[in-house]
């Protein structure tokens, strides 16, 4: 069981390049889309060798329906008196500052956190993240799947309250420590990825059929679960793969993966306006993958390597969008 005090440091050599501290994070949310909100958050701060320094937990009033209560157990009544995200943003930031964010499926937790900070017109002080799914793959752990419960069982960690942010963060911290020690013992490169705070954000919401009142019936923001974005079919034929050094051409199929500094939907809208086809998945027909994390374990990044699909980062894609060639005439 983890305790809020460091234990004796191991005498084994430790890679000098490893981070000096970690923030193991778990957030519970109203759903999985870009317009969903954080309703609880927990942080376990760890030192350089994975020993616990302290922990923190808070509820967050999402100003909307709490979503799948049957999963997280947080009802409207429970959340109505909780602080709003801007009210806990400073304390949350202090817990993250100067540390690598560690989470299970870290791209999800980071995307939710970065959106909340964007809504609050602030920036989370996170520069790198480490996904424990990616770390378990690098270590070759014999897991039946990549669920947190499987990682916990592998290390003999007991889950007491699944889908409660504080207990999930505790479980992950306890499983991360031996994972980190194993990686250090091999002098293995950690699968660290850059975190890009949102610098351009567009709030788009779909009202729910029934909104609950918060703050004594005050006018909380009315945001809803966003249905799948339906775009008109691209009017141009697919001209094939993007050739590095050449311009994009109308009709090319472009897929996106990972976090971006410009909100994903804004990037997609700009691609569509330029005459490109935004693909939700990656196949052999995809012309280009846009990602800032080409070495990540997302399904699109993995498939891009398998298929030899060209990859560019967000900045390069922004430059390419400025001069998209016309489609071939029929």
Distance between the termini: 68 Å
**Chain-averaged pLDDT:** 88
Largest sheet: 6 strands, mixed
Strand residue content: 15-25%
Apparent shape: globular
* Strands, count: 10
Share of helical residues: 25-40%
Order of helices and strands: EEEHHHEHEHHHEEHEEHEH
Structural class: alpha/beta
How would you explain this protein's 3D organization?
This protein is α/β, with parallel strands linked by helices. Helix content is 29%, strand content 16%. The strands form two sheets. Strands 3-2-1-4-5-6 form a six-stranded mixed β-sheet, with helices on both faces. It has a four-stranded parallel β-sheet with strand order 8-7-9-10, with helices on both faces. Strand 9, helix 9 and strand 10 form a beta-alpha-beta unit. The longest helix has 21 residues, at 165-185.
The gist of it:
The chain has 330 residues and is an alpha/beta fold. The chain is 29% helix and 16% strand. The chain has ten helices and ten strands.
């Amino acid at each position: 069981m983890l305790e809020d005090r460091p234990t004796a440091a191991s005498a084994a050599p430790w890679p000098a390049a490893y981070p000096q501290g970690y923030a193991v994070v778990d957030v519970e949310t109203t759903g999985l889309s870009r317009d969903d909100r954080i309703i609880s958050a927990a942080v376990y701060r760890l030192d350089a060798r994975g020993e616990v320094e302290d922990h923190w937990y808070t509820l967050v009033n999402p100003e909307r329906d709490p979503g799948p209560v049957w999963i997280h157990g947080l009802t409207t009544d429970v959340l109505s008196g909780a602080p709003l995200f801007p009210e806990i943003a400073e304390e949350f930031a202090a817990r993250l500052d100067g540390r690598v964010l560690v989470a299970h499926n870290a791209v999800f937790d980071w995307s939710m956190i970065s959106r909340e900070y964007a809504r609050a017109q602030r920036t989370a002080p996170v520069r790198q993240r480490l996904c424990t799914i990616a770390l378990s793959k690098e270590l070759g752990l014999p897991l039946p799947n990549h669920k947190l419960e499987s990682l916990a069982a592998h290390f003999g960690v007991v889950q007491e309250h699944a889908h409660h942010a504080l207990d999930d963060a505790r479980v992950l911290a306890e499983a991360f420590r031996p994972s980190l020690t194993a990686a250090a013992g091999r002098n293995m490169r950690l699968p660290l990825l850059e975190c890009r705070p949102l610098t351009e954000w567009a709030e788009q919401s779909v009202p729910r059929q029934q909104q609950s009142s918060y703050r004594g019936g005050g006018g909380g923001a009315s945001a809803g679960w966003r249905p799948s974005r339906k775009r008109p079919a691209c009017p141009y034929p697919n001209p094939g793969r993007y050739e590095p050094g050449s311009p994009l051409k109308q009709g090319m199929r472009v897929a996106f993966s990972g976090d971006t500094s410009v909100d994903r939907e804004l990037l997609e809208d700009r691609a569509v306006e330029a005459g490109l086809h935004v693909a939700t998945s990656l196949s052999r027909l995809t012309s280009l993958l846009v990602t800032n994390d080409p070495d990540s374990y997302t399904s699109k990044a993995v498939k891009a390597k398998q298929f030899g699909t060209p990859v560019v980062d967000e900045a390069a894609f922004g430059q390419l969008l400025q001069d998209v060639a016309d489609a071939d005439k029929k």
